[in-house]
Design a protein that fits this description.
Blueprint lengths: L14 E3 L9 E3 L3 H4 L2 E8 L7 E7 L3 E6 L6 E7 L4 E9 L5 E2 L3 E5 L2 E6 L4 E6 H6 L8 E2 L7 E3 L5 E5 L5 E2 L4 E2 L5 E5 L22 E5 L4 E5 L5 E5 L5 E6 L8 E4 L2 E4 L3 E10 L3 E11 L11 E6 L4 E6 L7 E3 L6 E6 L5 E8 L1
Parallel strand pairs: 2-21, 3-27, 7-8
Antiparallel strand pairs: 1-17, 3-30, 4-5, 5-6, 6-7, 9-10, 10-11, 11-12, 13-14, 14-17, 15-16, 18-19, 19-20, 20-21, 22-23, 24-25, 25-26, 26-27, 28-29, 29-30
Length: 352
């Protein structure tokens, strides 16, 4: 699930490695016709239980419904259901300030690992979905990461986290370059305060991307949310290549009280992802959110890449989808749409 929060600033971080900068010789540009030539998809609604607090759905192995709930008193953020019988399997992370409780939840499904980032408390939890399904007593306690970053993932070194650095920003027109690295790597539970002083806060314009990992293939993918750019790294965070486009989006910023913000309209590009062993898939908007419109007013595409970053295919969904997950056979997707009452619904998307 992508993140649309612009009100807080990162203040404490871990050990920084890996530069924001890439060798331009490694850049690859997508052609604009990957949108116009995209395959259309057949969209079907899947019947699920009435879930009044649901905000977003993911599907695992075609048979398990993962529900992200909105905040509600005495409720849980994460629930699992058996799609065959609409039966509750388990639930995790009650709203609260106590042990094993969280105050906010951004979720990402990367293979069999569900990441739940509680940016308010600066902590993250990881649920191994196979363990959830076989062990009714399975628990995974939240881990402090002491940042306000909305994007956190498990690093390939078991005791470490990889975190999006919200200070990684440069803009030639503003004449500003924070010279900050793309990622933060920190030990789990480590309390480490950022030692660099930045003149400008860039939290609102330089964050909310996704970190997609396939450590078995030595790949870490970073997708911008506000620029049409995908970055590819190896497991040691060495930049391999960048994928640019397909749109050229000229974003304007302004500075208010040493905080850089978007000037009236907000660019949106890569919004969500899913993976299988052969490919990664990303949803793409490529437009500006302007006053009087909502995210659901914009259609999205799905782009398919192999793990070397080679473009494979594109699909035109024709509507807004707030999350995607992949079917077992890789031939269709599950997505979160909305109905006429603006409530989330589970959709199956099959390319034609």
């Amino acid at each position: 699930m992508k993140k649309y929060v612009y009100s807080f600033i990162i203040g404490v971080v871990g050990c920084l490695i890996c530069s924001c900068k890439h060798n331009k010789n490694d850049d690859f540009s997508l052609q604009e016709n990957i949108k116009t030539n995209a395959k259309h998809v057949k969209i079907d609604t899947i019947a699920i239980p009435e879930l009044i607090y649901a905000e977003l759905f993911l599907v695992y192995h075609d048979s398990v419904l993962i529900v992200l709930n909105k905040k509600h008193e005495n409720g849980f953020f994460i629930e699992f259901y058996d799609l065959s019988h609409n039966k509750l399997i388990n639930k995790f992370y009650r709203l609260g300030n106590g042990p094993n409780e969280i105050l906010s939840a951004f979720v990402a499904l990367n293979g069999n690992l569900l990441t739940i980032n509680d940016y308010v408390k600066g902590q993250v939890a990881f649920l191994n979905l196979d363990s959830v399904l076989v062990n009714p007593s399975y628990i995974s306690l939240p881990i402090r990461h002491f940042t306000s970053s909305p994007t956190v993932s498990q690093y390939y070194k078991a005791n470490q986290l990889i975190i999006e650095n919200t200070n990684c920003f440069e803009d030639d027109e503003l004449g500003i370059n924070n010279n900050a690295p793309r990622f933060i790597v920190t030990n789990k539970g480590s309390d480490y305060v950022e030692k660099s002083n930045f003149k400008y806060s860039t939290r609102n314009v330089a964050s909310d991307g996704d970190i997609i990992t396939n450590y078995a293939l030595n790949k870490i993918i970073y997708t911008y949310m506000h620029k049409p750019i995908i970055e590819i790294y190896d497991n040691n965070l060495k930049g391999i290549k960048r994928i640019l486009g397909p749109d050229k989006m000229l974003t304007q910023y302004r500075i208010v009280d040493n905080e850089i913000i978007f000037n009236r309209r907000i660019p949106y590009t890569y919004l969500d992802f899913c993976i299988n062993k052969d490919y990664f898939f990303v949803t793409y908007m490529g437009d500006f959110l302007v006053g009087g419109k909502n995210m659901e007013d914009y259609p999205l595409w799905i782009f398919k890449f192999d793990w070397n970053g080679n473009f494979v295919d594109s699909y035109n969904m024709g509507q807004y989808i707030s999350s995607i997950s992949i079917s077992n056979d890789g031939k269709s997707f599950f997505g979160t749409g909305i109905n006429i009452e603006k409530n989330p619904i589970l959709l199956k998307l099959t390319p034609l």
